[in-house]
Amino acid sequence: MRRYNIPTAEYRNFRHYDEAKDYLSTVNHRVVIKVSGLAAGKGVVLPESQGEAHKELREIMVDKKFGDVGEEVVIEEFLSGDEISILTFVDGHDFKSLPPGQDHKRIFDGSRGPNTGGMGVYGPTDFVSRELMWQIDRDILAPTIQGLESDGHPFRGMLFTGIMVMPTGPEVLNINLADVCLSCIKGTLGDQDLRVQDGYACNAVVASAGHPGEYRQGHRVEITPCPADTNIFHAGTILRDGHFETAGGRVVSVSAVRRTLPEAVEAAYEGVRCIDFPGMQYRRDIASRLGSVQIDPDDSH
């Protein structure tokens, strides 16, 4: 990203704990610590102070909190703003993006607690204008895709980009459909018309107690009929003796598409109320940035 002038936070990579610790002692701003490997969406920590940052760094690199994936870490500047997520189809040269969504990474309401792989998302995000999307295409997506092509590694598939919308503009946080996907492979994406359903979508995740830390498995999951056109997606479940049991941190997610955002949020939470297992937890403030829906705080398990 530095080589192609793609806007992102200031960062340094480290493979040795002592070097990372010494660098951390020199910074006078809040930081984010990321492991370089895959950690089921939990490899990003957001320490509130330098003392907490040193503690997290030691747990990752010395105590092997995330195992071998934490042998290399990235320490970067903490960015504050509105975070959005964009999925982009790429055929190696041309690209087309879906409307942006806003993810909810922290485990608790009000964006508190440790990061997870995501506790819910809604979209499209009305606060992202056409002008801002054009700027993201010009300053982030185009140079990323062109840079990969120039380096001899043309990317074909679906590109996920996490972006922080700052007062100065968008900055990258991280870069991780039959006919459309086939065009990506063939290099003919420019011939495809990307049609997106009108309306809004909301997805809420139901997680095990203790997630994203240690949690118990094997709880029986009860599912009653949910509203029409509301979908339940299984993630951390297993079918045993004719019923579902918990087998992961993020157990299921419930999604709904409706004409307005408040309707989509309400429908998703109606679906959540059809799920029941001991210790289940979920955020009650998905899409609350826009004050769209007030979820009854007493509606809990």
UniProtKB/TrEMBL annotation:
Pathway listed for it is: Purine metabolism; IMP biosynthesis via de novo pathway; N(1)-(5-phospho-D-ribosyl)glycinamide from 5-phospho-alpha-D-ribose 1-diphosphate: step 2/2
- Protein's GO biological process: purine nucleobase biosynthetic process; purine nucleotide biosynthetic process
**Which keywords describe this protein according to UniProt?**
ATP-binding, Ligase, Nucleotide-binding, Purine biosynthesis
Q: Where is the ATP-grasp domain?
A: 1-205
Asked whether the UniProt record includes Ligase among its keywords, one would answer yes
Family affiliation:
Belongs to the GARS family.
Q: Kindly give the InterPro entries that the UniProt entry links to this protein.
A: ATP-grasp, ATP_grasp_subdomain_1, PRibGlycinamid_synth_ATP-grasp, PRibGlycinamide_synth, PRibGlycinamide_synth_C-dom, PRibGlycinamide_synth_C_sf, Rudment_hybrid_motif
Q: Does the keyword ATP-binding apply?
A: yes
User: What is the name attached to this protein's record?
Assistant: phosphoribosylamine--glycine ligase
- Enumerate the catalysed reactions: 2-formamido-N(1)-(5-O-phospho-beta-D-ribosyl)acetamidine + ATP = 5-amino-1-(5-phospho-beta-D-ribosyl)imidazole + ADP + phosphate + H(+)
* UniProt source species: Dactylonectria macrodidyma
Query: Signal sequence: where?
Result: none
Q: Which GO terms describe its molecular function?
A: ATP binding; metal ion binding; phosphoribosylamine-glycine ligase activity; phosphoribosylformylglycinamidine cyclo-ligase activity
Known EC number(s)?
Answer: 6.3.4.13
Q: Which SMART domains match?
A: GARS_A, GARS_C
